[in-house]
Amino acid sequence: MNIRNVLVIGGAGYIGSHQVKKLNEKGYHVIVYDNLSTGYRDLVTVGTLEEGDLADKDRLREVFSKYDIDAVMHFAAFIEVGESVKNPAKYYRNNVINVINLLDVMLEYKIKNFIFSSTAAVYGQAENMPIKESKIKQPINPYGKSKLMIEEILKDYDKAYGLKYTSFRYFNASGADESGIIGEKHNPETHLIPLILQTALGEREQIYIFGTDYNTKDGTCIRDFIHVNDIAEAHIKGLERLFKGEESESFNLGSGKGYSVKEIIDKTKEVTNIDFKVKEAERRKGDPAVLIADFSKAKQILGWEPKYNLEKIINTAWNWHKK
Ligand SMILES: NC(=O)c1ccc[n+]([C@@H]2O[C@H](COP(=O)([O-])OP(=O)(O)OC[C@H]3O[C@@H](n4cnc5c(N)ncnc54)[C@H](O)[C@@H]3O)[C@@H](O)[C@H]2O)c1
Ligand SMILES: O=c1ccn([C@@H]2O[C@H](COP(=O)(O)OP(=O)(O)O[C@H]3O[C@H](CO)[C@H](O)[C@H](O)[C@H]3O)[C@@H](O)[C@H]2O)c(=O)[nH]1
């Protein structure tokens, strides 16, 4: 069988770089398209890096002309919820307009297999846990709205142009590859587990708990953490399904288990065997109290389920951060 070419947009970022490594391990040929705005050249450990911006359609055309692309996986986006509230234009431009550019060029080149990084933020505040894909989508910030807009656009492009897509709504992506050569590298870092680990390393004086008065068992927010390699594995299954000609679908990617911020901090102290300062702080704007995924649809249709538990997630992340 011919080796398939997969174009990974945003493959120099945290999740994309793990996907690139996984695709390579599964025998795909990988081309990364990235402008390195929040990504890093050294996270691209295999495949070919083509530098370019999604706003630049001519550069995209060059890449699509150079390689015979079989499918596109799209990870590139701005990802900070708080920033999206302050500067929505930045988010709608990169997370919506630039994705339309990409889809335009894909269609010009008759490439019809597309995998999209969506988010639990499309659901907004949910009353009942765990969250199923069918839940009504009411995102409460521009970041979540920008992702939902693309999900809606994809439905229309499927009907009108026959574009086949799989959208994955990640809950809290975390952990690092076991090799220790790639991991979560965001600057500024806003995510809980890397911030706790930086505190354990003494790079930060303390970790703040944002809100202790939520209606949860210990008053702190509850989240569903999913290992980045479990996410990558699901994408491979989604890709194989598209290559079989199956219909477009959207899936939650989470573990189905929720842990409170306090529990995450305690678990990290246990895994690292380091004690560090914890301070209680005000709630962060826009945080839903609880987010837990129902992943039964991915299990049923893709035959996917997460392999990493919380301890392994923290352990692999710790392994990377120590380096
Ligand atoms: N990290 C999470 O917890 C999480 C949760 C849910 C969804 N997601 C989604 O997963 C995807 C990847 O997230 P991440 O944490 O790896 O982010 P990241 O910032 O590490 O990676 C994004 C990559 O895209 C590139 N990029 C951004 N804009 C670009 C443009 N216009 N042209 C070319 N390249 C561009 C960046 O340089 C970077 O390499 C995003 O779409 C995000 O919305 C992430
Ligand atoms: O220093 C910190 C950082 C975070 N938190 C808390 O830890 C929880 C997790 O926060 P993260 O920033 O790590 O993750 P989010 O749940 O806010 O965001 C994740 O899920 C979102 C979907 O809701 C988006 O997809 C986003 O990209 C993704 O990182 C939240 O309750 C937050 O308030 C703290 O208490 N202290």
From TrEMBL:
CDD domains in the record: UDP_G4E_1_SDR_e
Cofactors required: NAD(+)
InterPro entries (alphabetical): NAD(P)-bd_dom, NAD(P)-bd_dom_sf, UDP_G4E
A GO biological process held by the record: galactose catabolic process via UDP-galactose, Leloir pathway
Complexes and interactors: Homodimer.
Similarity comment text for this entry: Belongs to the NAD(P)-dependent epimerase/dehydratase family.
PANTHER family on file: UDP-ARABINOSE 4-EPIMERASE 1 (PTHR43725:SF53), UDP-GLUCOSE 4-EPIMERASE (PTHR43725)
Catalytic activity: UDP-alpha-D-glucose = UDP-alpha-D-galactose
UniProt key word NAD: yes
Gene source species: Orenia metallireducens
Organism lineage string: Bacteria, Bacillati, Bacillota, Clostridia, Halanaerobiales
Enzyme class: isomerase
EC number: 5.1.3.2
Pfam families (UniProt xref): GDP_Man_Dehyd
Pathway in which the depicted protein is active: Carbohydrate metabolism; galactose metabolism
Domain of life: Bacteria
Keywords: Carbohydrate metabolism, Galactose metabolism, Isomerase, NAD
Protein name as annotated: UDP-glucose 4-epimerase
Residues of the NAD(P)-binding domain: 7-315
NCBIfam families named in the record: galE
One GO MF term: UDP-glucose 4-epimerase activity
UniProt key word Coiled coil: no
